[in-house]
User: Fold these one by one.
Assistant:
Number 1:
Amino acid sequence: MLACFGLVHSSIVVHLYYFAIAFGLLLFFIGAANKISLKPFVNTILIGIVVAILYFWAHLHYQSTPIHSYFESNTTFQATHNGYHRYFIYILVHFIPAIAMGAMMLQDSSVLKKMDKALLPFILFFTIVLAYTIFSAKISYSVATTFEYMNDQTLNYQLVSYYSMFAFGMTLYLISNHRYPWIFYILLTALAALQLVLALTAGGRGAFVMGLAFCLYFGLTRLSFGKMTLYILLAGVAFLVVQYLLVNNELFGQGYERIMNFFSNQENYRTDNRWVRWDLSFESFATSPIIGHGIGSVFYEVGYYSHEIFLDILCEGGLVLFGIFAYGLFKFGSLLWSSIKYDRHNELLLVLFLCSFVYLCFSGYYLGESAGWLAVSYVLCRGRNYEKEAVV
């Protein structure tokens, strides 16, 4: 939010801010040790330590290989090196605090209800911040430079787009789970429409898919087939109207064109950055399909993360890590779906997870995320104790 208002123009300040939050959460986590069971407390610490050690080992391994001495003065290798270290910091300030926070939330059985009560004012303020960021941006030659120019790369168009769609998912949650006067539903629907426009304007391709996922989930779980069909038709008409009204707007047109070109332009399959990295990461996986090349190795094997969570996992841990991840994902999904049947407040966790998961299918490094890991940590540590929470 500081970056949105132009108060932060340095990535160093942002990293210091991250470290301050991470350190504060660590202190709270240690203080909560006597309020949560020993098993999730110890497991959280062990997972954080093991992941950090394995990730750092990749750096030591690639430093000791001949390729390091050959490329140590090459700018591409230096960029890879910087990317690796950047996400090592993200593991320390995002991944580890997120799983710690998930375990720490166990001390309060009504934590989701408290989050629900605070959600509406937060989403309103959050949407205002995002709208200010987008509508005050100075038009440049591409959507990327339009937003990076304003915030010196501390807040890029990808984040603005995904944050807008996160707000959209939370707004759909409010519409689906609360009984408001009819005027509130109209205002919330208008708010959701604004959030969609903001996401499309910022040009996030994964954010577009994320929006479809939210609409599909809340539509299938709340509407009959007939109503679902009607709302799809109405949404399609609304989308065409928005496209007709805004496509000639220079700011909206940049982001909208970027999204549509990715899915409709066949040339992108050979030249787009993501398709190229996906090919490279799969080729790397094929050279060591069982155990992969080690946690963090994707930065050296591909040059950066591959922008696709499953390919990152296959490249780094092969079929072994992929199997572990698939099992954990299945267990998490089973527990979360069962808990939603008991208490709809658990859909907050689903929105958090979907935001993170869809984002990681198009961008980001899976160990540098926080929202999804918080949801996974909380659900797995809680196990089947959600029955007790439902009656609190």
Number 2:
Amino acid sequence: MEQIKPIKITVGNEEYILRFTRKTMLKAEQEGFDIQSTAKPASNMYDLFYYALLADRPMMKKDAAMNLLDSIGGVLGVQDGFWTRLCELYQAPLNTLTEDGTPTAPQVTVEL
């Protein structure tokens, strides 16, 4: 399976990488984030952006993430394809599992 390239944002001399790990995906879901929810679309988009920052900036505060998104154009002002790629990145940690749900690491065996 092809790996999805993270999103890189540069503001001044500060670089931000947006990507997801299993850990950040789990944190998002534990905090109530649901990528398929349409009840609060703007909030959902800000949250998705925030959780994508946590993989490389675990101390990032939600209000700082919101300010960063606003500084690059806000929910509707970002580059075409941005939200599609961010959703793909969110799903990427799931793609590290095989279809039957077992880890893909070949050196690992699990016997029941």
Number 3:
Amino acid sequence: MTSLGKITIRNVDSGEYTRMFPHTVSVFDSVDFATLNSARAEETLHLVFFDSSGNPVMGWIAGRRDGQILAPFSAPYSCPSANTVLPVEVLVECMRSLHSYAGGNMHLTLPPDFYAPDFLPALKAAILTAGGTLRHADYNYHCEVERAADPATPPSRTARQELRRAINSDRMVYEIPDSADRNQIERVYRIIEANHSDKGYPVKMSLDQLTDTFMMTGGLLSVITCDGEDAAAQIGYYSSDNVYQPVYWGDLPQWSHMHPMRLLFHRLATHLLDIGKASVIDLGPSSENGIPAYGLCAFKTSMGCHLSLKPTFTI
């Protein structure tokens, strides 16, 4: 146990952490997710912040690797867990304690604000107040499911025309493969792999890693076929109670002229709207270490998505 003023930080075991914090902001903040990816860190930390009476007020899962503390150590972002609304002064004190605990050697990447609109702005302010520094902020795009399902949403006339042509085409079909079928997961993966190869960058997750994660989190597979051949696909998770995140999506270069990605996004949103399982689609970052990929930013904007920031701090 490390006593730091009013707040004490202790690394507890996974079972104790789960009992203290049964609810998380996203699936990526859960003990199950950290356990699945534990091989990617030298040590998994289940940090609990205790008040002066010994009550747990907040928890944060992180990992040690290469002499640093990382939150996340194998996920798009990381967010602490709390069972009640924390006053700003408590958040600041927690972050001051974390600063002392980590010695300026901890890197935090937070989710965009729409995951926790009240909590995350207060947390970012507390990190800065406590002496944390902003390393960079990635360009993250999202869209409300209802908005994405509306063919009138794309802001430009060209984008709306491309979507309407794709919707009206009798050559393209939207499929929802069985998410429990590993062969279908591999089918989607191979489409994504070919897309990434064409663009000159690898898929960061192996097929086995993606399959294991998908089976744990639950999610959806989508495929667009054109003239009976696979043309585009996505695989994604329900990253929180109301957010769906396509982790990988892309089309095959020989079908790009048919705009299958516009149809894929529209049909995915329509399906999510029909089943009522998410209100927001998180399309993730369009940058690397804060450097934007302008073409990807433009494409997501053309679909009616909103820009938000995914910040990374050192504390």
Number 4:
Amino acid sequence: MGISAILLTGIKIIGIEQQDVAVRILGVVDLIALPVFAFATVRRMKSKR
């Protein structure tokens, strides 16, 4: 999840022109990853009980 933020920040610091499509794709990947990580976290917490 955080890798896309790191990528976008690194690209901005370096000064490379980034395409709008690439930024949108990384945003969608982040949004898809959120429920996956939430599910995995809840499942892990339940298994520790």
